[in-house]
Amino acid sequence: MIGLIHPAHAQADAIDTLIKFKNQDSIAQSLKPEELDTFSRWTILNVFEVHEHRERQYKAYPVRPVLDQIFGQGWRAADEIVFSCKDGYQPSIPVAKFLAYDAYLAVASADGSPFILNNTLQNHEVVELGPVYLVWDNLKFPILLEEGAADMPYQIIGIELASFATRFPGMFPPARVSAEVKRGFLHFRKYCMVCHTINGQGGGKAPELNYPISVTEYFKPEYLKRWIDDPASLRYNTPMPALAAAIPEREKVLEEIIAYLTAMQRVKHIPPAKNSKD
Q1: pTM for this one?
Q2: Which terminus of the chain is more solvent-facing, meaning fewer CB atoms within 10 Å of its CB: N or C?
Q3: Which residues lie below 8 Å from residue 179, measured CB to CB, with a gap of 6+?
Q4: What is the pLDDT along the chain (278 residues), one digit of tens a residue?
Q5: Given CA atoms 23, 26, 32, 37 in this order, what sign does their dihedral have?
Q6: Residue 91 in contact with residue 151, Cβ under 8 Å?
Q7: Where are the domains of the chain?
């Protein structure tokens, strides 16, 4: 059978391939992956692919020259960079990390094979990586391997300079909390909010955890900890990955995340309406 593509669908697919670079909600550039050539030279990058537990090579563009060209040197004084992905994944990564380590925007597999990976961290799901995939030179900086895949979003369609406090005000813990809760908030920001929301703010890939009922109010403590530690032990075929095994003091990190979630019972907000504007 010969299939015909409706023009509207073709146009939508073309729009989906664009990467929108924003500065505080204002669009600076909208580019197709191949247009990154305008701002930087691509290279073949060898990485340890944490999603597949093996080394791989990608055709990739260094991030810093791209951001310098699009935003000017001012991006280096920004707070965070928020990456929006087709699947709802939305990590907010401190600018300091991009200044300390070498990050790249991968656009293809180096050997010309399909730009996909077998995500062993999410039940061996085969995923498309385009339009672009954020990778780090973790062979040059092995310390990055401790973080697992926390800051490696794929299917990126938006890159935005942002202030965390302005973008995600509903995620901050209440006043006068313990140091444990404050550390838990930082862990949640890094490892959990990329998929989950608190008071409607965060990633859109996984369920809300605080509003209207906190997950800590209906999940027994021992099972909540087990869920973060080893989701597959509670749910067959779950796409939720376990907290990265290489994280230093992992047991303490688990407890501090739960302390933060518990404290957030006191600061429930009505999730803000989603803005449909670009």
Answers
A1: 0.82
A2: N
A3: none
A4: 233 333 333 333 434 589 999 997 789 999 999 999 999 999 999 999 999 999 999 999 999 999 999 999 999 999 999 999 999 999 999 999 999 999 999 999 999 999 999 999 888 899 999 999 999 999 999 999 998 898 999 999 999 999 999 989 999 999 999 999 999 999 999 999 999 999 999 998 999 999 999 999 999 999 999 999 999 999 998 989 999 888 999 999 999 999 999 999 999 987 666 554 44
A5: negative
A6: yes
A7: 15-165, 168-266
